[in-house]
Prior knowledge:
Blueprint: H1 18-26, H2 30-52, H3 55-72, H4 82-100, H5 116-123, H6 128-147, H7 150-161, H8 166-170
Amino acid sequence: MLLTVSEPEATGVDELTDECLVGLAQRGDSAAFEELARRYRAGTYRLALRIVSRPEDAEDVVQEVWLSAYTHIGRFRSESSFQTWIFRIAYNRSLQMRRFQGKSALDLADGDFDNEHILLMAAREKTPEDSAILNEQRATLGALLAKLADKYRRALCMWAFDSKSIEQVSR
């Protein structure tokens, strides 16, 4: 079953804030959840595609993301924005897909770091300026990583890109 998101009807849900929509969705309002999906589906797809690379895998990830969000919307506690929460789910599901494919998160060319800013940047559409900045950041990061001794570089990459704990990295 594919998630389809229709245009908002004349119910006014398209004018509500994410916080209001989440509250309504938590009380079972399917139109509110559909509006959240309409707002963020493209961003979750772009984020997944950047991580898993293949469009069909990204679609699978997006389906899992929105099924998980629908199933667990009651657990959302507004400690972060809904956007951050849904992108975090997309990021984690995408990494799971990469691992299932036998690829390490170390293979991510972008060096996606584990923070809100990077998640939001990865999910939005890119401008030429964004691409230039990202290329500069990649070059800087690559140069700095190259200066590290191999064992330190591997440890840092395991922690930053593979989400390994300090204890796991130290083994």
